[in-house]
Design a protein that fits this description.
The complex is a heterodimer of chains A (about 325) and B (about 375). With about 325 residues, chain A is mostly helical. Chain A has two domains: about 5-75; about 85-325, MetI-like fold (Orthogonal Bundle), CATH 1.10.3720.10. Chain A has helices at about 1-20, 25-80, 100-130, 135-150, 150-175, 185-205, 210-220, 225-255, 255-260, 280-285, 295-325. Residues about 1-5 of chain A have low confidence and may be disordered. Chain B folds into two domains: about 15-125 and about 300-365, Periplasmic binding protein-like II (D-Maltodextrin-Binding Protein, domain 2), CATH 3.40.190.10; about 125-270, Periplasmic binding protein-like II (D-Maltodextrin-Binding Protein, domain 2). Chain B has helices at about 1-30, 40, 55-70, 80-90, 105-110, 140-150, 160-165, 185-195, 200-205, 220-230, 240-245, 265-270, 315-330, 345-355, and strands at about 45-50, 75-80, 95-100, 115-130, 140, 175-180, 215-220, 235-240, 255, 260, 295-305, 360, 365. Mean pLDDT of chain B is about 85; it is low at about 1-10 and about 20-45. In chain B, β1 (about 45-50), α3 (about 55-70) and β2 form a beta-alpha-beta unit. Chain B is α/β, with parallel strands linked by helices. Chain B has an eight-stranded mixed β-sheet with strand order 2-1-3-11-4-8-6-7. A three-stranded mixed β-sheet of chain B has the order 5-9-10. Classes of the chains: A mainly alpha (about 325), B alpha/beta (about 375). Chains A and B meet through α2, α5, α6, α10 and α11 of A and α1, α4, β7 and α10 of B.
Amino acid sequence: MDASVEKDMITRSEPLRVINSSPGAISKAKARTKRSWRQIRTESVFKRTLTIMGLVMIILVLGILLTLIVQSLPSIKSLGIKYLWSKVWDPVQDIYGAWPFLLGTLLSSFLALIISIPFSVSIAIFLGEYHPKGWLPNFLKNAVELIAAIPSVIFGFWGLAVLVPMVRILEIHLGVEPIGVGIFSSSLILSIMIIPYAASLGRSMITMVPSHLKEAAYGLGATRWEVIRSVVLPYTRSGLFAGILLSLGRALGETMAVTMVIGNTSLIPKNIFAPGNTMASVIANEFTEADKPVYVSALIELGLVLFLVTVVINIIGKKIIDRFTND
Amino acid sequence: MKFNSFKFKSVLVAGTFFAMLSLVSCGGGGGSTSGSDSTSNSGDDNTLIGAGSSFDNPLFSKQFSEYNKANGQKVNYQSVGSGAGISQLTNKTVDFGASDAPMNGKQDSALSAPAIHIPVTAGAVVLSYNLPEVKDTLQLSPEVLADIFLGKITKWNDAKIAAVNKNVKLPATTIVIAHRSDGSGTSNIFTTYLSKVSDEWSTKVGKGSSVNWPVGLGGKGNEGVAGLVKQTPGAIGYIELAYAIQNSMPYAKVQNKAGNFITPSIASVTAAANIQIPADTKVSLTNTEAADGYPISGFSWIIIYKEQKYNGRSLDRATKLLKLISWMIHDGQQFSSALNYAPLSPAAVSAGDAILKSATYDGKPILQ
């Protein structure tokens, strides 16, 4: 059997060598060389394109940072570092302090994160582990993804028309000033908006847990809850955390929906029901009519602070993810 | 996984878009990087370009479309806000700017050549409130208004409010104040008025398109403030007259300098502008001397360079611009009332005519 095959191959290779010198074969061989040369070229062009695209992103991010720094120089020079913790924002007298807005941004974003985590983790487990297939899970999955696609101004409008009156009723029951709009309302809106980010990343992580691990745990007599608690969640926690981090980033930068329900006051919020303001919302509100160079510059510096806050939170998050993955 | 990669891509695309957008807007805001002579190369030579006040936009759209029908002159107006309109004029990227507030000292000094202000329309700021129990129209005196917005009067049945509303039964509701959160000409008119009538307001808060409000909630745009007022029992907020009329919101009578309580209307705003107008027309109509004028009114101006020969502009273009503005303050005024803008008073029209004639091209007057 083996010998015949070998013999067959040899007999086939014989005529090939003969045809090699015929004009047809030469042109074929040339075409092949050409094609391979073209393949190489395509390969290198493709590689170069990828590199350029990657570099463009880096240049863009650095460019934004540079623009923010350069444009906020006038304000940094005249206001100094105390800009970060001074509490008064008074464009009439050129006094600018970012503290109320820094506080408002962090407060509303982290509150939103705390509200959203139970929902996003539950949805991720439900879709990833309990019901990966079927019409209801499919419907739920699409609904969650749709939330990410709704423009934020619609959330803001819905918040103002529906959520704020409900919060006002809650505030009457709690005995705080019943104004409806405020940090709490904006956190509620934000928490709904950021659920898809953590939920869909978490879901895909949970579906990727190797089935032999789960089967082994079931084989040892573990219940479903025990499998989730001691196999699925430990295995996916870095992924879940990355999703939560992504949603926090979204919450920090959200502008339109927040500005419609947060109450937009430069006073420092006394409690979570009090009106406040966020950095993104102040920039969106005041940028068009900022009529003095220092004012414009102070607003851009606000953008710089927001940029840096996002970067710092991301770095801390990456460190935490690394630690999770290492043990 | 498929969803995930799709998601990642869309996030990337959105990120790039946002990044470009922010680069562009930062460049524009700084003003230093903007081109110097885009007037001459933007669009065809026949289109005049303007930018500024969003308050003027509905009136301007109507006026410019009518003017185009009559004279075949296209005008491209960008409703970007008064402050942005002035900075575009400063950078010479537009033929004219439009603003709800006259240029301040700092803006003036940023200009490379003197500019002139021509009043084109007038508007008013009204105080809308949410008091379902009160059927009569509320009356407000300047002192009461200032005290409410300073946070010194906190209940609707306060003795000071009751004193100017003798026959009205006021509820014990807490006052919730709504103001604009975005910088706006409306805020400028309102805070200018409060600064004139209250020394405490003038020293504590001051006037401007954005101020540090002592109390209250901020809403974005007229619709934001109106939304807060409609929703919150006991709320009071200031909005443009046109917006309040169109949305049939209740608004208060305000006592003017002569002591009369005036209902804001197109007629009472025009009346407020029938006063002695200075030659440069940069006058605030707030707290007007006119006995039948509504006190929280203000002009809106078109601002152009006094010397029209700059950046290689042609005499033809300068003439077209001045003819347009002249038409706007005369024939164009007939479209005001239907859109709830107050037509210019005779005093304002003649002041506008005089200052238009002072515009020059290469030192020679353009309009005879």
